[in-house]
Write a structure and sequence with these properties.
With about 150 residues, the chain is of the alpha/beta class. It has one domain (about 20-150): 3-Layer(aba) Sandwich (Rossmann fold). About 40% of the residues lie in helices and about 15% in strands. It has helices spanning about 40-50, 60-75, 90-105, 125-150; strands at about 30-35, 55-60, 80-85, 110. It has a four-stranded parallel sheet, with helices on both faces. α2 (about 60-75) links the parallel β2 and β3 (about 80-85). The longest helix has 22 residues, at about 125-150. It is elongated and about 80 Å long. InterPro entries: DECR2-like, NAD(P)-bd_dom_sf, SDR_fam.
């Protein structure tokens, strides 16, 4: 009886990844994001762009939007357009959606991220401030979904 020697074959490990997602997960998809110029939504937009999406970001501060769009475009090699507007005004959403569809041809994903908040106890929050939060968070979300629904 002869003994056979076995040699272990070890496959090379793939390079480490910083993402659990396929690099082209959102390849050529279009994201429309309110509140995309700052905070959590900016990170969401940049991440989707890193995974292949192009984006339109909407917010009230045009200067901040333009800077964020340029920064994310440079960092990802994808396109991000700033579309200034206020989610409380439906006409602003219609115009932003039209600009997005004109540029990219469609909208694949929508993130309703615009939010109003005041870090204050209720005793320090005026009724106008509370109304603003409700209008941005609730009416703004409705307006965003309504304006993007057909696209």
């Amino acid at each position: 009886m002869s003994s056979s020697s076995t040699k272990a074959v070890v496959a090379a490990l793939p390079p480490p990844t910083t993402s659990i997602f396929q690099p082209d997960l959102f390849k050529d998809k279009v994201l429309f994001c309110t509140g995309g110029g700052s905070g959590i939504c900016k990170v969401i937009v940049k991440t989707m762009m890193e995974l292949g999406a192009n984006a339109a970001i909407l917010g009230r501060n045009a200067v901040r939007l333009e800077a964020a769009a340029a920064e994310m475009g440079r960092a990802t090699g994808r396109e991000c357009i700033p579309v200034p507007g206020d989610v409380r005004r439906y006409a602003d959403l219609e115009a932003a959606v039209a600009k997005t569809v004109e540029r990219f041809g469609r909208i694949d994903y929508v993130v309703c991220g615009a939010a109003g908040n005041f870090l204050a106890p209720i005793s320090g929050l005026s009724s106008n401030a509370f109304r603003t939060v409700v209008e941005i968070d609730t009416i703004g979300t409705y307006n965003t979904v309504k304006a993007t629904l057909n696209h």
